[in-house]
Amino acid sequence: MDPQPKIYVNNLCGQLNERIIACSRCPRLISYCQNIGLTKRKAFLTDEYWAKPVPNFGDPEATRLIIGLAPAAHGANRTGRMFTGDRSGDFLFEALHKAGLCNQPTSICSSDGLQLAGVLITACVHCAPPDNKPSTKEISNCRSYFLELFHSRDWASILCLGTLAWTQTLTLLKDSGQIKAIQKFGHGTCVVTSSNLKIVGSYHPSQQNTFTGKLTMPMMLEAIRLFAMD
Hints:
This protein has about 230 residues and is an alpha/beta fold. It is about 35% helix and about 10% strand. Strand 5 and strand 6 form a beta hairpin.
């Protein structure tokens, strides 16, 4: 499989992606990503792992943004593309395809032809963290990349996958005066700012949520419907 993600080099998103890939602010995470790429999982022993910070992915002209937690150790850390190569991505892209926001329901590797329509995907942290738990400092280290992406254009809507994405986004909006208070996270919760930016909350499509039924496909599709609605 091709571990090299598509990087848009002729726009702001591409320049930001290049800086993300070259980032070394969090030695613990860099070391973890590299070690995972060497030891690998038995099912992927023949794969060349990306094993670096994972860049943003999607339509470079997007006005809708999806924010996840962080790359999975054997998912995006392996393939080099957000939500690609693991069960969370399978669930998310199937939903996005059903909603007409991407061209195919599967996301296997960075060369599989997947394209998003009007949507960009990012994460609170761009490196895979041990146990999927980045530290407060590591989240803070990645925050500038989110701020730069957020201020790069006028977003129509943001879909926050999980509590951390929700809190990070609403904190930014509160700090900039666009909302007065940070509303409690909940699946399907919707906040509209003074500038008419819509923020939608969704449970993260992790196996812990999808396998237990906490997040079902109809629930995911309803959150995406709110996110995509003008």
